[in-house]
Amino acid sequence: MIRATLARLDTAGDAVLPSLARLTFAASLAGYFWASALTKLGDGPFSPSLGAYAQIFPRAMEAVSYDAGQLGLWHRLVVLAGTYAEFVLPALILVGLLTRLAALGMIGFVVVQSLTDIIGHNADATAIGAWFDRIPDSAILDQRLFWVMLLAVLIFKGAGPISLDRLVASKM
């Protein structure tokens, strides 16, 4: 009887965990990333704002006295890619399309974001925090570990039963 109950829980977990992970992402992170992306939009879709460059390349912008025109094509492409990623990857997760790939992309984004905050923006020790320190509220190490864990569920479990991934798979 215990084994049967545990087996049912395992089976239910395959549907509940990814669905709950996507709901949690929608409730707590999608709006955060979209709001961040909106701050990076300039006059048009291929014209990032000055703030986009300052957020992504803080030291480079300081070195050129905040004149983005002095930065190269590579900087522009990275800023555009980062901006579009903040719109597209959360949207894919929300609708459950290419979810595993989108979650992997989001983990990469969070890692780069964290390194930029720590190195580029010289985050202080309080913001960075430390693992295993009994203080669970640092903005970078503690908080973003939860983000990565949430996204890892989607990588390993997929989008869940209510998703475009499931709909596409059923048509194949």
Structural notes for this entry:
It comes from Maritimibacter fusiformis. One of its GO terms (cellular component) is plasma membrane. Belongs to the DoxX family. With 172 residues, the protein is mainly alpha-helical. It has one domain (23-159). It is 72% helix and 3% strand. The protein has helices at residues 2-28, 30-38, 50-56, 58-63, 73-95, 99-120, 125-128, 141-157, 164-171, and strands at 41-44, 47-48. The chain has a two-stranded antiparallel sheet with strand order 1-2. The mean pLDDT is 94.
Short description:
With 172 residues, the chain is mostly helical.
What is the percentage of strand-forming residues?
under 5%
Percent helix, as a range, is over 70%
The count of strands amounts to 2
Mean pLDDT, to the nearest integer, reads 94
Strand order of the largest sheet: 1-2
Largest sheet properties:
2 strands, antiparallel
Structural class: mainly alpha
Tell me which oligomeric state these chains represent: single chain
Tally of separate domains? 1
User: What is the radius of gyration?
Assistant: 19 Å
Instruction: Return the string of H and E elements.
Output: HHEEHHHHHHH
What ranges have pLDDT less than 50 throughout 5 or more consecutive residues? none
Rough outline: flat
Distance from N terminus to C terminus (CA atoms, Å) equals 37 Å
Please give the count of helices: 9
